[in-house]
Amino acid sequence: MALPFGLAPEAAGFLAVAVFVAAFVRGYSGFGFAALVVSATSLVTSPLHAVPVVILCDILMTAQQLRGIWARIDRRRVATLFLGALVGVPLGVTILSSVGTDLARGVIAGFVLIMCAALWTGWSFSGTVGNAGNAGVGLVSGFANGAGVGGLPVAVFLAAQPVAAPVFRATLIAYFTLMDLWSLPLMARAGMIAADTFRAVLFVLPLMVLGIWLGGRQFLRAEPQSFRRFAILMLAVLALLGLVKSVI
Q1: How many percent of the chain have pLDDT more than 90?
Q2: Closest CA to 22 of 223, 210, 225
Q3: Can you give the three-state secondary structure of the chain, one letter per residue?
Q4: Which of 51, 135, 142, 224: disulfide with 89, CB 3.0–4.6 Å?
Q5: How far apart are CA 151 and CA 88, in angstroms?
């Protein structure tokens, strides 16, 4: 059977490892899957192929995690974030689906690096964030989701507030699912979803399920903050490599 998107076997093997690692990160920390996979994809093919794939994968991963996170979701925050994403997602899909491969690589890599820097420096809010602030972050997040990295602005936003790790993780996962469900029909209309998109999801599904399960087990017995720093380092390295590839 031919590999999706015309990938060479070595490229497919590299991406299979990236999906497994990214699924483990998502199962453990609640974020990072899409940015890791899209950044890794940019090293071997157009990252635009990966965007709808990771969105479909995100929805499937939530189905696997839902029972463990349901009671810890901050539903009000999820709702206000999603209000912003309702506007941001169409903008991001329209703009980022029309750019060239190299420009897409550069935009994604630069965005990931900025988010990594904010997370690593421990930037935090000094006051209380209201509904308007949550909706504004949702707008930025929705725009970024056109490139498959919409989770990072929200991860930065929550990490900058005194949010307990279980609530942080559950709220991110719940918000991602709503944003992804809104993104899919818009991406289909923009021509970003093809038969290879679904074939790629089927190829990575076993690795994704295993990675999520192992990451979730690790979360139950470890402090997420230490692994979050590790995830940020991985994102930064992949983003740097993608940025170099976009200009050579």
Answers
A1: 48
A2: 210
A3: CCCHHHCCHHHHHHHHHHHHHHHHHHHHHCCCHHHHHHHHHCCCCCHHHHHHHHHHHHHHHHHHHHHHHHHHCCHHHHHHHHHHHHHHHHHHHHHHCCCCHHHHHHHHHHHHHHHHHHHHHCCCCCCCCCHHHHHHHHHHHHHHHHHCCCHHHHHHHHHCCCCCHHHHHHHHHHHHHHHHHHHHHHHHHCCCCCHHHHHHHHHHHHHHHHHHHHHHHHHHHCCHHHHHHHHHHHHHHHHHHHHHHHHC
A4: 142
A5: 13
Tell me how far apart the alpha carbons of residues 114 and 196 are, in angstroms, rounded to a whole number: 31
Of 236, 245, 24, nearest to 149 by C-alpha is 236
pLDDT of residue 247: 75
Look up the pTM and report it. Answer: 0.85
67/87 Cα distance (integer angstroms) = 29
